[in-house]
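To: structure desk
From: M.T.
Subject: fold request, one chain
Message: Could you run this one when you get a chance? Sequence is below, nothing fancy, just the single chain.
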Amino acid sequence: MLFRFFSPFAGFLGLALLLLCLGPAGAQLFETKAAQAFMIDAETGTVLFAKDADKPFPPASMAKLMTMEVVFNAIKSKRMTLDDTFVVSENAWRTGGAPSGTSTMFAKLKSAVRVEDLIQGVTVQAANDGCIVLAEGMAGSEANFAAQMTERAREIGLQKSTFVNSTGLPADGQQTTVRELAQLALHIWRDYPEFFHYYGQPDFTWNKISQRNRNPLLSMGIEADGFVAGASEAGGFGIVGTVSHNGSRVIVAMNGLASDRERSEEARKLLDWGSRSFQKTEIFAKDEVVGEAEVFGGDKSGVALKAKGPVDIFLPIANRDKLTARIVYKGPVAAPVEEGQPVGELRVWIGDTLSQRTPLFAAEAVKVGTLPQRALDAAKELAVGWLRQKHL
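Reply: Done. Structure tokens follow.
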């Protein structure tokens, strides 16, 4: 059974946090026209905003984030170098090149292109021919590469994203979510800092044709410096973007907008709000007790809980009364309890968005109680346990 113990956070910055309520507040702090949206703080992964974040949709060109993750991982693992070259096949040329009428770097048929140039074609120009050349060069065929994309997605924790091609062009069975796109973008920023700069490159010239970066956020003066836009008939207009402001970074993924103009404006507003409306605050110091969990059959009735380190959250600068939190664990916890034993987690909501989950551990050991103590606990559980189950 799941037992909830609500933490008082006594004395925390003098704020009257509503931590004894029966659930999170029921309203978003921000409104957007996007059908799906998800925003996180890059340093901690804290969720700042979520709207229908787990609904699958066709990724369009945002699938290229996964294409690049596979490429970056191969280079980092020394299975490939930036100076390796791949040949532009007729399939890559026709499907993603000049004849295709889609976003392209205009790579010449049968020419050999360096991996670094292909990367710039994809990250700056959203080049479909660049994606296919990389896919065929690395895996023999685009289908094989797409299978590697899905496999790699699972390895890094993306459970819903499935890829059928390297470009994001329409294909049955190809899907992602805004939550997983944001997590993928965060992974790329964290794990491949040596390659992230390509996403902020303002332009790229190939085959004597110069093109501006297709990410509309880069030219809006909001300190945006990366990632990708996409659009499909089935899913609408979407974008994955990031802003670095005053030492903090936020990442947003959005989809389901009606036009490229609406996409740019809604992304700008959400990123601006996210980068300016939160303040990082330590609510528990390292080794500070967060709360207590009930113990069954122990020489103590409860066990103190703490996190592995300090607990930081991102507080809304305004609307601080929308912050709610509680400790959640399966209980009562059966004795004996070892110090450091995982017990539950601290969950924090901002509005109705589950913003942060922090694992909690026993701060002390609790031994098995005496026979009378265990008998008393058994009687108490018999008397109130069914009420707890009914409540849940």
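Reply (cont.): Confidence is low (pLDDT under 50) at residues 1-26, 386-392. Let me know if you need anything else for the meeting.
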